[in-house]
Specification:
- The protein folds into two domains: 204 residues, P-loop containing nucleotide triphosphate hydrolases (Rossmann fold), CATH 3.40.50; 215 residues, Rossmann fold.
- The chain has 16 helices and 15 strands.
- The strands form three sheets. The protein has a six-stranded mixed β-sheet, sandwiched between helices. Strands 12-13-14-10-15 form a five-stranded parallel β-sheet, with helices on both faces. Strands 7, 8, 9 and 11 form a four-stranded antiparallel β-sheet that branches.
- The protein is globular.
- The two termini are 42 Å apart.
Length: 454
């Protein structure tokens, strides 16, 4: 991000938009004083309350894109209290704020609950509770509702607004889905991918007058929804995976019991349900990465191709062309120092020729708008770019079954549409897609069937 001229008044509520990779997250980190100078590069000036952002860190509350990176302590109550303790808030006041903040974001768990036992959506609520408990004068939120179920989206947004109303805090929020915040903010600012601002004004002025132009740049405008792919006619389907009397869980965590179901070829299965219901655990179990607590996940001969019917027993190389998995947190599967090298890992493990490796990598770089980033370090990408890269790494080995956890996280409308089209084409060509998602538009556009966890 460069060339930005912007003034935000005290108490304003600003929705910051822009296509994937435009620098939205970088700007929020700069406001919070955690980028620039010793961290990264900067030019020009940025002031918060008339001071360098590093001097106002205690007065700025930042919620980052990856909630895992913001969880610090082992117990829920201690984690929410951490920021307040660093600000020297009196002990009795800290614990009153802890309980109020957890109630506000709808995280109904015991204060001594282990933070590692929370789902991704619950960790997102936890991180937000820690921010709100600090009572910051500036609240900066990066995709605060991305991993939340539909009810949680409204709950969390309303909690932020209530805190701002009671404290007079300024809000700057990044969210790709305009409709979530458009009625709750005073101002919409749209960053240009090449630098600077392309729109700035009231929600009605920006979204109504420039809606079509912004939609063409990838901004989610409700009146201009992104295109959906046309689905091809499918031939006879064969069973690839079956779940039989399946129960899933991790260690001592609660077990989710499921009805029997089958995943056929040329089929898209969506896994939906509330935060904490076990969706990610089910996805990892179907992907052959977690053992079932009870029952079994079985591969048919059409998928197993001679390596046995239990995916949990397959070696990593045997999984590569059979079941590919995309984790909820893309950073958990980044291994190398460049985007291109990341995409080469799977094909090279299959001992493909250099010509074939290059062909697969080049196609994926282009299809997922990562070609300009081919030599970049994966950890320097935006959240949406990391998500597309993680999907691409799984696609590079062309598995028959692709398991994805929140595949549309962090995507602008253009990359969302392109990712959807790519997955639809895989299904049309005979592969199966299993997707955990809170994105109801994505589920409606792609899924042939749905398993809903409670």
């Amino acid at each position: 991000m460069r060339g930005l001229d912007l003034r935000i008044e005290p108490g304003e509520r600003v929705l910051l938009l822009g296509e994937s990779g435009a620098g939205k997250s970088t700007f929020l980190h700069a406001l919070a004083g955690v980028v620039g100078d010793d961290e990264g590069e900067s030019e020009g000036s940025l002031l918060v309350d008339g001071e360098h952002p590093a001097a106002t860190r205690g007065r700025t509350g930042l919620l980052i894109q990856d909630p895992d990176s913001q969880v610090i302590l082992e117990r829920v109550g201690d984690d929410v209290a951490f920021g307040c303790e660093n600000l020297g808030v009196p002990r009795d006041e800290i614990w009153r704020r802890v309980r109020e903040s957890l109630d506000a974001v709808g995280l109904d768990v015991a204060l001594d609950r282990n933070t590692s036992a929370l789902s991704g959506g619950q960790k997102q609520r936890l991180a937000l509770a820690g921010v709100l408990a600090m009572r910051p004068g500036l609240i900066v939120l990066d995709e605060p509702t991305a991993n939340l179920d539909p009810a949680g989206v409204t709950e969390v947004r309303d909690a932020v607004i209530r805190v701002a109303e009671s404290t007079g805090a300024t809000i700057v929020v990044v969210e790709h889905r305009v409709s979530v915040w458009s009625d709750s903010v005073d101002r919409v600012v749209v960053l240009a991918a090449g630098g600077g601002v392309i729109a700035d004004g009231s929600p009605s002025a920006v979204l109504l007058r420039q809606g079509e132009q912004l939609a063409a740049r990838g901004v989610w405008i409700p009146q201009f929804p992104p295109p959906r792919p046309l689905r091809a006619e499918r031939g006879p389907q064969q069973s690839l995976l079956t779940a039989s009397q399946l129960s899933v869980g991790r260690g001592k965590r609660a077990v989710t019991a499921l009805r029997d179901f089958t995943v056929p070829s040329s089929h898209a299965l969506a896994i939906t349900g509330a935060n904490g219901s076990g969706k990610s655990t089910l996805a990892l179990t179907l992907g052959g990465l977690l053992s079932p607590v009870a029952g079994a996940v079985l591969a048919t001969p059409a998928l197993a191709a001679g390596v046995g019917e239990h995916p949990i027993r397959w070696k990593s190389r045997e999984l590569l062309t059979r079941i590919g998995t995309v984790f909820q947190d893309p950073e958990h599967q980044l291994l190398t120092s460049t985007v291109r090298a990341e995409l080469e890992v799977g094909p090279r493990a299959l001992k493909l020729s250099t010509i074939e490796v290059d062909a697969r990598v080049d196609e994926l770089l282009t299809r997922l708008r990562l070609d300009r980033l081919a030599e970049a370090n994966p950890f320097t990408l935006s959240g949406g770019e990391k998500r597309r890269l993680s999907v691409a790494t799984a696609l590079a080995t062309r598995p028959q079954v692709l398991v994805l956890d929140e595949p549309t996280f962090g995507q602008d409308s253009r990359t969302w549409s392109e990712l959807l089209a790519l997955l639809a084409r895989l299904v049309d060509d005979g592969s199966s897609v299993i997707a955990v998602s809170h994105d109801l538009e994505f589920v409606d556009a792609l899924a042939d069937s749905t398993v809903t966890l409670t």
